[in-house]
Design brief:
It is a single chain. With 86 residues, this protein is mostly helical. The chain has one domain: Orthogonal Bundle (Arc Repressor Mutant, subunit A), CATH 1.10.10.10. The radius of gyration is 13 Å and the shape is globular.
């Protein structure tokens, strides 16, 4: 896969066997719309800050914050309702 952003596959960030099971979270992140999924991966898994994420995506920092907020709300709904059919 060729991409301008740091390519992060969900399989490469899976927890070790002794870690808690976050598989539902990872599956939910994978189901987010791309614009939300991208900021979540950059911010949380690539450990980019708001400004670095904004620069990578060529969007304003406020947009990154908005998308992170919306992504967290969507993830909360998905996980609370177990609204996924994998």
């Amino acid at each position: 896969m060729d991409c301008a952003l740091p390519c992060v596959r969900m399989q490469t960030i899976a927890p070790a066997a002794t870690s808690p099971d976050y598989s539902d979270l990872y599956k939910s992140i994978d189901r987010l719309p791309e614009k939300y999924r991208t900021v979540v991966i950059l911010y949380y898994f690539s450990e980019s800050d708001i400004q670095t994420t904004a620069n990578a995506l060529k969007i304003p920092p406020g947009t990154v914050k908005s998308r992170l907020n919306r992504a967290r709300k969507l993830l909360k709904e998905m996980l609370e309702n177990h609204a996924f059919d994998f």
